Amino acid sequence: MSHGMQQFHEHFLAESQEALSAIESLLLQLATQTDNAELLAKIFRLAHSIKGGAAMCGFSQVAAYTHSLETLLDALRNRRIELSTRASDALLQSVDVLREMLGTTQPHQPADLLRHDAVHAELLALVGLSGEKPQSAEAQATPAVVVKPAAQAQQAWKINFECGPQLLSNGVDPLQLFNDLSTLGSLQVQAQLQALPSLQDLDTQACQLSWDMVLTTAAPAESIELVLEWAASDCRYTLSPIANQPPVEKPSARISVDKLDDILRMAGELVTQQAQLHRLAGSLQGAVAEQLRAGMAQIDARIHELQDAVMCTRLSPVSTVFAPFNRLVRDLAGPLGKQIRVLNSGERTEMDKALLEKIADPLLHLVRNCVDHGIESPAVRVAAGKPAEGEIRLYAAHRGGSVTIEVSDDGKGLDTQRILAKAIRLGLVAANANLSPEQITNLVFLAGFSTSDVTTELSGRGVGMDVVRRKVLELGGTIDISSQAGRGTRFTMSLPLSTSVVDGITVSCADELYIVPLTMLVECVPGPEAKLSAAADQSPVLAYRGEHLPVLDLEALLFGSSTAQADASGLLVVVEDGDKRIALRVDALLDRQPIVLKSIHNGHGQIDGIGATAILAAGSAVARILDIPALVQQSGSQQQRRRIA
Amino acid sequence: MAVVKNTLDDVTGDGSSATAVYDLPRRCTMAEAMALREDLLLQLDSGQHITLNAEPVQEVDTAGLQLLTAFARDIAAAGRPVRWHSAPSVLTEGAARLGLVAALGLNADQGSA
Question: For residue range A217-253, what is the model confidence (pLDDT) as tens digits?
């Protein structure tokens, strides 16, 4: 396969996966709006685009399968059949099958051919074609659609498109059509407004615009016509090649994440090497040194612009991880006899693609918990004066330099008495522990904790919430839980925009280097200046701006014993997590610089309080990022234990 | 239902008329086009300069954009070119895809009040 064709395939596969996600989401909407012709038209168009692209790429099985899907959609559109639960299930299963089929076009992805045939047969049966034996995989190996190889050279095409009066009311939207065309290449559009009447005389249900377009693409004319064909009965169009058209540069390109990572890594190394140069330049004096520093400041600004630009290319909307949950919840709730709808908001919030991939699992677990434990059965809800249908809300937003993601439900809420009883039974807290409701709800994040009496398919195996918390912390984030009996539960995750660069200070402790993220740093207090005293339990506290903060000796905390002097030496680093502050005793403050995480792994195994590992500059030093939320929590637990004791 | 939410001081500097801010609905699509047309006709007839607040817009289609184009053209012809506030990407991208950015006046002061 030529490189050009391979790129075309990759582009098609990526676009198709997005189209399938969109189809899935629209099908779920259609299930509750069965007479919404607009939704059906959108689904049809997306399926049609997949069919066209598959045929063009030579994926004849996908093209043939999508053709059957179109047949069912067409029957629904023309009201030859009703959208029953069976039809809805078959359509959703078709999405799964198409995902698998598109997956098998890549290596090492076995296909479940029997299932494909079964769903295919169901599609045909629904439109009354059950007598037709679905093609076996072998039979389908012969292309069902004659595929011409895609032209590798870019060709510009002139398209004139005039709408017929019924185009819009038949569910065809030129906006969608042109979007489909733009997937084939670079599309320039010029609207003709001559026929557009005044607002007073405008028929809002008819399109009175026409367009002249230039499409520059490697795709053959057949592919363009496959898209336009959708509107053929309600419009007039002409398609003609433009001779000697110089190739037009594409306005956008798909770039592999690996390549972006390489660029980001190089930009990151520039940051650290620049920091080293700053240290050197700082020791120089004189006019030339001043000029050097001024020049370096300008380079600093450019490097940060470069970093920001690369970071932006890595951003993806949260919708990519939110979208599958509509389907997932539908599939999970059905067997449990529950009615649940998913409401998304803020799904256009963008964050690092790598982070998005990593939060998918924690999110999945939280949503499963909401389905399994949070939302009650319809009868229970109605008896409690709630609507029979429960709600799970997914919300995302940028807050400061981080991203907040919330998963909430309007279910029964957490039973704090039951949680406390279980924690006592498991020996996680003392029997006479005096915990606040907030502390009790947070017990669900402890390893092995589960209040479910029955192990279910979804959750309740006693693992999960602690894993969720650990994963979020590994990503440099935090997770909180709030709950109201009878009203529901909310999990709030706060995540960094990126895991690639952390701005922080480097401190030393017992000859090792640690990084305190700047976002959690309050102040550094030199040991001799610190106002230390002893609490009632003799543990050290720091008098700090009207508060008494617990002092944690980092060395003792991490290694069990400390060689540091108890008072007038070293440095106290005041850190905060939310509204909780503690002071960490370390040996010395070394530097402040942006730290690039060249490799993220937990080098300290089971030691709480250590997050990721960072290499400060090429081979120069290794430092470990302190997990401040865990340390703050650990401090709280120690105080609690002391109180209980 | 979208409403004129406030009236600003005249921004044209000639003191002849005030500027009204009209909140576009969440959906500017064919389903809402008839109601939106009635609202926009009122704005057209008001004699005021109009700033379209597009912040609430979450969905557009060709019918909706065609309607806004007709409004933008008619009100400009009346010597009161439309101004935009906070045009979201769904609107600007849709307009660009249909080649309507200039006709809507989105290239002039998109996102400004």
Answer: 887 787 788 778 777 777 888 888 887 545 454 456 6
Residue A189 sits at the chain B interface (C-beta within 8 Å): yes
DSSP strand pairing (B49-53 vs B19-23): parallel
Of A8-12, A239-243, A527-531, B7-11, least confident by mean pLDDT is B7-11
Indicate the DSSP class of residue A591: E
Phi, psi of A519 (to 5 degrees): -65, -20
Collect all residues with Cβ–Cβ distance below 8 Å to B5 and sequence separation of at least 6. Answer: B21, B22, B23, B53
Partners of residue B62 in chain A, C-beta under 8 Å: 168, 173-175, 207, 209
User: Tell me: the pLDDT tens digits for A163-182?
Assistant: 888 888 877 889 988 988 88
Helix (H/G/I), strand (E/B), else coil: A334: helix
Task: Tell me the torsion sign for CA atoms A56, A59, A62, A67.
Answer: positive
Closest to B95 measured CA to CA, from B56, B58, B69: B69
- pLDDT tens readout for residues A259-272: 777 777 787 777 77
C-alpha A135/C-alpha A145 separation (Å) is 14
Query: Which residues on adjacent β-strands are paired with residue A344?
Result: A394
Chain A interface disruption, residue of B30, B42, B92, B93, most A CBs within 10 A: B30
CB A558 within 8 A of CB A586: no
Domains in chain B: ranges and CATH? 20-104 (3.30.750.24)
* Residue A135 confidence (pLDDT): 40
Nearest to A620 by CA among A267, A265, A263, A272: A272
Q: Whole-model pTM?
A: 0.45
pLDDT at A606: 43
Number of inter-chain CB pairs under 8 A, A vs B: 79
Q: Which amino acid is at A254?
A: R
Q: Which of A175, A191, A211 sits opposite B94 (nearest CB)?
A: A175
Nearest-by-CA chain B residue for A168: B63
Q: ipTM of this predicted complex?
A: 0.87
The helix/strand/coil state of A9 is: helix
